[in-house]
Structure formats: C-alpha cells, structure tokens
C-alpha cells in the first residue's frame, strides 16, 4: 500500500484514535447530573414509545425502562470506555466491536432521525474499517503488549 506521509498502519491508527476522541466527546458533552438523574433514559423512552418497530418498544420497555439509573450509567461509561480504549489502543478489537454494537443500537432507536443516522453510520463505518485493517498494529498498548497480533 502506498500512502503519503505516513504508513498505512499509521493512518489506520489515526482513524482509530479519532474515533476514540469522538466517543470521548459523546461522553464529555452529556450533562451528567441530568443524565444520571434519568434525563437521558427519559428522552430515549419517548423515542422508543413512538418507534415504528414494535420490537424496539417492547425491548426498551423490558430491558431499559425498568432500570433507568443503571442503563444511564451503562451508556455513559460505555462511551467513556470506548473512547479511552480506542485512544490508547487497549483491547482495540473488543472496543471496535462494542462500538459497532452500540452504534447499531443507536441506529435502530433513532431510525427516524437522519442527523443521528449520519453520525452513527459514520462511526460504524470507521469502526468496521479500523477493525478489518487491524488498526491496533501501531501506536497502541495492544501492539506494545503483543496482543492481537497476526
């Protein structure tokens, strides 16, 4: 692979780190006081209640709604863990797959909102690209520790 300025592995590391910064920003911009008091889950409950797919309404009502505080912490700290994991390159394949799953959940929940769809589709595309390019090969704790080598 011929690239300009950096190697292909370094460009994919930059992509991975950029995605990690995006997840970190998703965590940072949340109003934590409101979010952990149930604001985020209340907002999502309103969207789920009007969702066009009954399976989303039912799933939300059974899994998320009975545990609003726990789910608020799970979502917020999943975003933080993804950001830190991708930036540092620690357990990178796990973080990339977890990010794909979280983006898929967001995509399904926000199926009607094109602005959210664009962000989640872009993040999912970057996750898949970084995963299949094995973006942990360079500038990562995984590489330093000899994890996930070819």
Automatic annotation (TrEMBL):
InterPro entries: DoxX. Keywords: Membrane, Transmembrane, Transmembrane helix. It is a multi-pass membrane protein. Its main location: membrane. It holds the Pfam family DoxX. The chain crosses the membrane at residues 6-24, 94-111, 123-149. The keyword Phosphoprotein does not apply. The keyword Transmembrane helix applies. It comes from the Bacteria. It is found in: Membrane. This is DoxX family protein.
């Amino acid at each position: 692979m011929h690239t300009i300025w950096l190697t292909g592995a370094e460009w994919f590391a930059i992509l991975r780190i950029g995605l990690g910064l995006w997840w970190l920003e998703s965590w940072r911009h949340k109003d934590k006081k409101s979010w952990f008091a149930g604001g985020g889950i209340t907002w999502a409950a309103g969207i789920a209640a009007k969702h066009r797919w009954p399976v989303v309404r039912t799933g939300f009502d059974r899994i998320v709604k009975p545990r609003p505080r726990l789910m608020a912490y799970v979502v917020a700290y999943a975003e933080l863990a993804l950001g830190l994991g991708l930036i540092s390159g620690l357990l990178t394949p796990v973080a990339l797959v977890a990010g794909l799953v979280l983006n898929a959940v967001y995509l399904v929940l926000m199926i009607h909102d094109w602005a959210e769809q664009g962000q989640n589709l872009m993040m999912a595309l970057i996750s898949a690209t970084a995963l299949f390019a094995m973006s942990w090969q360079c500038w990562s704790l995984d590489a330093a520790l000899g994890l996930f080598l070819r």
